[in-house]
Amino acid sequence: MNVTVEDYQHALEGFLEDMRRLGDSVVSVLLYGSLARGDIRPGQSDLMDAYVFLKEEVFEDKDDFLRAIEVMVNACKKLSRSGLPFHHPFHYYSMDEIKRLPAVFLPTLRSNRSSRVILGEDIRNQMGASHAGQLVACASFFEVRRLFCLPLSRYLHKIPLTEQDRGEISAGLTYIRKYIPLSACFALGVHVEESEAIAVLSRIVDVNVDVIEQIKSFQRSMDRKPDEEIREILRKALEFVEMLHREICLRIQNKDGG
């Protein structure tokens, strides 16, 4: 399938058509990510990075809730059949949860550059996160490192690498590229958008962030790379994560000691 930007727009229009079927139950639909920014990479950018906010009353009436769920599930099924990358469904919230959103996403959701309202009201200035949510955001770096980075070390000395190994390494490098800089900023108490994370991180820590661009460039032709080059970029990526980990731990230790 030759994927185009128009395919994404068509999928978005279909999604909006489905959301309009909910009528007054929808307060706002907020789009974020590459589709909102206008920098889609056809065939690689994900669908559907969106938040759907519903009236509180929808969650208080069983019939209304089941109807809303049915519409949203069917919308997800249509998106999954679009032929476009669809790695996760859109999110939905009640309006009484608007002050308890995931803190890690708030800078992006509030930004006019990284998000846009595609249906209903602009409620971005009402968004907030709980104290517990902010603590979770600060701890996200350590969880991403533990769950997605450290297990990759088993491939550093594995010979040969199978196709499955290469796929798992590529997925791991994507996690490092996309989530490590942002989560590191949060761990350091700096709340920024994903698009700003690398630049901000380069200013606040004594760690070379060039490896992120190296990973991005490498992944474009990873399927043609020999095993030794894949292990080398993986080694650099994991060293980057460990250097960040050391820097963050030292700063937390110094802060607590002070």
Helix-and-strand structural type: alpha+beta
Span between N and C termini? Answer: 58 Å
Largest sheet data = 4 strands, mixed
Share of β-strand residues: 5-15%
**Alpha-carbon Rg, integer:** 20 Å
Tell me the total number of β-strands: 4
Instruction: Note the run of SSEs as H and E.
Output: HEHEHEHEHHHHH
Overall geometry comes to globular
* Average pLDDT level: 92
Are there runs of 5+ residues with pLDDT below 50, and where? none
Helix content: 40-55%
User: How many domains make up the coordinates?
Assistant: 2
Main-sheet strand order equals 3-2-1-4
How many separate helices?
A: 9
Description of the molecule:
- By secondary structure, this protein is an alpha+beta fold.
- It has two domains: 122 residues, Beta Polymerase, domain 2; 127 residues.
- It is built from nine helices and four strands, in the order αβαβαβαβααααα.
- The protein has a four-stranded mixed β-sheet.
- Helix 3 links the parallel strand 2 and strand 3.
- Helix 5 packs antiparallel against helix 6, helix 6 crosses helix 7 and helix 6 packs antiparallel against helix 8.
- The radius of gyration is 20 Å and the shape is globular.
- It starts with a helix and ends with a helix.
What would the keywords be for this entry?
2 domains, single chain, 4-stranded mixed sheet, 9 helices, alpha+beta, 258 residues, Beta Polymerase, domain 2, 54% helix, globular
